[in-house]
Amino acid sequence: MTDCLGSRLYVALIHYPVIDKNGQIIASAVTNLDLHDIARACRTYGVAGYYIVTPLEDQIRLVKRILDHWTTGAGARYNPKRHQALELIRVEATVEAAAHDIAHIHGRRPKIVATTARRHNGGLAHRRLRAMLAEPTPVMLALGTAWGLCDGFMDAADHILEPLKGAETYNHLSVRSAAAILLDRLLGDRN
Amino acid sequence: MTDCLGSRLYVALIHYPVIDKNGQIIASAVTNLDLHDIARACRTYGVAGYYIVTPLEDQIRLVKRILDHWTTGAGARYNPKRHQALELIRVEATVEAAAHDIAHIHGRRPKIVATTARRHNGGLAHRRLRAMLAEPTPVMLALGTAWGLCDGFMDAADHILEPLKGAETYNHLSVRSAAAILLDRLLGDRN
Q: Structure pTM?
């Protein structure tokens, strides 16, 4: 069954609305390696799709140019494996547009699961989310860039996922590392 | 006990000897984000140290310049959390020099555990390595850059770790993602 677990899971990398170092809401810049690293992890773990969410026109164009290079341009010939990963990426201006796209594919609106490095009361356990992925409702796992998703986003989400916990109080994983670990916990072979 | 599990685990990011796309042995270039992402994951999971292994003088200078910026320069003031992660980094020209350094700290030579995306007979299970971390002998977890560690390195290692397995046959995680997932499997809170 592990092979099918990811077929209703979507990852969304949110560039707006997120907070900066001072807690102000900003639109962050897209970074090339967030596209590559997270797409490769999504492909490895069998995730159904990977949304880049940004309202900024120039950033949308940048993502499309990177995707063109690796999926139809010189990059596709240089490294076909990268093509297989990056073809999972779709770009949307808002989370709502991404949710609408997923609803169109599955005939059901996805549950939106927000992630955070901060502890919340009543956070959704990773194993509970893993169990939810066997149910018919699709899930959008929302990851914040910069200093993370803003409070308004968290409040509007269907669930807030329990934060990852290491050995110490230090908890400052990159969004790329957090995405990889979460996919392994949700979809990895546990044998 | 989870808090202490990482105290004898060292991560080594190997830039030589690794292979290129065509299987030739090369010395790869150090990349800034490999330093940051893996150091942050090491710090989060309580790893004892993170070695950057490269024989190239200019690359050694580059790593030291990056570390200076974040641990004593403007970066340390801008983001003290990054300082706490990057101070785990040491640069050595060879794996042997890194092993010698670890032996000096612990009074025992480390077991060298090589990682690969390819399946090997008799690979060390992740849970077996997790159990080894409770024993007095330190462990160096060696991660290859570029297209991975060369056969000679694998043959000389004390163990070869079982590859990570996702849902499909595609298995092309970035070294940053693989490092994060392995640290979570070896040191993460399993409750």
A: 0.95
